[in-house]
Amino acid sequence: MRNYIIAILVMSFIGTSCQAQKQTNVKVEETAVTFIVDCTDQALFKEINQDFHDNLSIFFKQLGVGHIDWYEKMTVRMCAIDDTDKLGMKSASIALTDKGISRREEEQRRNPKPLLQLISTELGNYESLCQRDMKSSPIINVMLKAFREMNTEAEREVVVLCTDGVEFSGYGNLYKDVPTSDAAVSKLIGKIDGILLGEAKARIEEVDPQVVLVLKGNSKVNISSLKQFYSKLMAAFGVSSYCFIDNFTNNPNFD
Questions:
Q1: CA-based, 20 to 30 A from 215: which of 36, 59, 75, 97?
Q2: Average pLDDT over residues 43-63
Q3: Domain coordinates in residue numbering, the chain
């Protein structure tokens, strides 16, 4: 089933390419997409996983990624949110950097299969991971660690957070109370490790990423309040371009 999904997605991404001539000394332009997947709840992950399998090709097309031309590179990174609070980042890339290759080699390098294989493999790993009874949901820490790993040389960085947004950690229990006032959000941010926060903010300032928050509904928490909270959080982190969507079929419109 997994290989079938990959084959379908590959066919949807491969299209006609522009063969416009470029100078051989042109810098390779990299687009990087980082998926942060919440694995702290089985039902939540099941919904996220289904969204990937059903709608990833739509999402990539709406982002304008998934197809590379000459002197372009695309990188996909994947990491999970679990109660270990660790960043187990995996990545894969495709690139076209040498016009001296054959047409066959060109198509092999352009093929997004390595990116889709990474996504499929990691989702399979996450499916096993989320079977464990999770003691916490450290969304903020994992997100900051992912920001810290962004590539300053990339032309475009997109960070995609797939979660219900309900932080449950030493920073706060959003099941009980979602901070929405400036004072409440500042109080929560004051609990974040200063070194991690500083390093993440410095990388955000340097890279200027686009952030997509794919917020899945949670009946225990008001989603409007969550959006207020994450809007203030993004502002505090220095993220100027972000949006909220329900699933990968929604068109991301960045602020």
A1: 75
A2: 96
A3: 2-10+26-245
Could you tell me where the beta strands, DSSP code E, fall in the chain? 29-38, 72-81, 90-96, 156-163, 168-169, 172-173, 210-215, 241-245
| CATH C-level class of 2-10+26-245 | alpha beta
pLDDT value for 6? 54
pLDDT per position as a tens digit, 136-153: 999 999 999 999 999 999
- 234 alpha-carbon distance from chain centroid: 15
3-state secondary structure of 29: strand
Q: What is the pTM of this model?
A: 0.89
Using the structure block, give the residue that is written with the tokens 């063969």: 19
Rounded to whole angstroms, the Cα distance separating 138 from 40 reads 9
Over the Cα atoms of the chain, what is R_g? Answer: 19
> 205-236 burial, b for 16+ CB within 10 Å, e for fewer?
eebebbbbbbbbebeebebeebbbbbbbbbeb
Q: Is 95 exposed, middle or buried (0-12, 13-18, 19+ CB in 10 A)?
A: middle
As a whole number of angstroms, the distance between CA 72 and CA 66 comes to: 11
Q: Within 13 A of 164's CA, how many CA atoms are on the CB side?
A: 22
Contact 45, 37 (CB under 8 A): yes
pLDDT at 81 over 50: yes
